[in-house]
């Protein structure tokens, strides 16, 4: 009788381990299926023979106040989530009367209520704004934001073609949109 009880206890112990293993496998599968809160994405366009590419992580509003709340006004923002947003161009661009040489740049902004500062920085590969340094700015300029009553849930960039020599870049999130034109240097 005692031998039978020990044998039964051993089987129960093995069964518990097996059940735990199955539970972990199911849990892992469910975790893998979850959509990221700030999915990595990109946008690009050909304007004439210029290729403009923007790479970013797209956070959601998720019932939060973004500008002046989650993101403090008058502070540098990496204009996305996680890694700094970057912009790459294979041609020189004219933006606000300044030349952005062909290359890859970190894209940062300084949001405020009345106007935003837009920044192209030579340090494009960094986590957030951890290594941001103003001395690495290639160009910066100010722009007036546009406001909407409709909420743009996910951060979205667009590269818009106007004609073979001109385009615009826009960023929209929450109730704010900024957009600025550029010209391709031939």
Index terms:
186 residues; alpha+beta; 6-stranded antiparallel beta sheet; 44% strand; globular; disordered N terminus; DUF2911; DUF2911 family protein
Instruction: Return residue spans where pLDDT drops below 50 for at least 5 consecutive residues.
Output: 1-29
Helix content: 10-25%
Strand content: 35-45%
Give the overall average pLDDT.
88
Q: Enumerate the strands of the largest sheet in spatial order, edge to edge or round the barrel.
A: 1-2-3-6-7-8
String of helices and strands: HEEEEEEEEEE
Query: Given the C-alpha coordinates, what overall shape results?
Result: globular
| Spatial extent as radius of gyration | 25 Å
Helix tally equals: 1
Protein name: DUF2911 family protein
Organism: Winogradskyella wandonensis
InterPro entries: DUF2911
Descriptive report:
There is one protein chain. By secondary structure, the protein is α+β, with helices and mostly antiparallel strands. It has two domains: 1-34; 40-184, no CATH class. It has one helix at residues 2-33; strands at residues 40-47, 50-57, 86-89, 93-95, 98-100, 103-110, 116-121, 137-143, 146-161, 166-184. The protein has a six-stranded antiparallel β-sheet with strand order 1-2-3-6-7-8, with no helix packed on it. Strands 5-4-10-9 form a four-stranded antiparallel β-sheet, with no helix packed on it. Strand 9 and strand 10 form a beta hairpin. The radius of gyration is 25 Å and the shape is globular. Residues 1-29 have low confidence and may be disordered.
């Amino acid at each position: 009788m005692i031998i039978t009880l020990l044998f039964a206890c051993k089987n129960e112990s093995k069964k518990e381990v097996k059940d735990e293993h199955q539970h972990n496998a199911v849990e892992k599968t469910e975790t893998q299926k979850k959509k990221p809160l700030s999915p990595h994405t990109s946008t690009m366009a050909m304007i004439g023979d210029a290729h403009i590419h923007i790479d970013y992580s797209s956070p959601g509003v998720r019932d939060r106040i973004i500008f002046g709340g989650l993101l403090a006004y008058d502070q540098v923002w990496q204009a996305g989530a996680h890694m700094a947003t970057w912009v790459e161009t294979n041609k020189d661009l004219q933006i606000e009367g300044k030349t952005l040489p062909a290359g890859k740049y970190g894209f940062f902004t300084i949001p405020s209520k009345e106007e935003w500062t837009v920044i192209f920085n030579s340090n494009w590969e960094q986590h957030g704004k951890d290594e941001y340094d103003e001395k690495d700015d290639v160009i910066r300029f100010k722009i007036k934001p546009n406001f909407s009553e409709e909420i743009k849930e996910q951060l979205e960039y667009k590269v818009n073609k106007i004609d073979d020599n001109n385009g615009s870049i826009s960023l929209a999130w929450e109730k704010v949109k900024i957009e600025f034109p550029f010209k391709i240097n031939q």
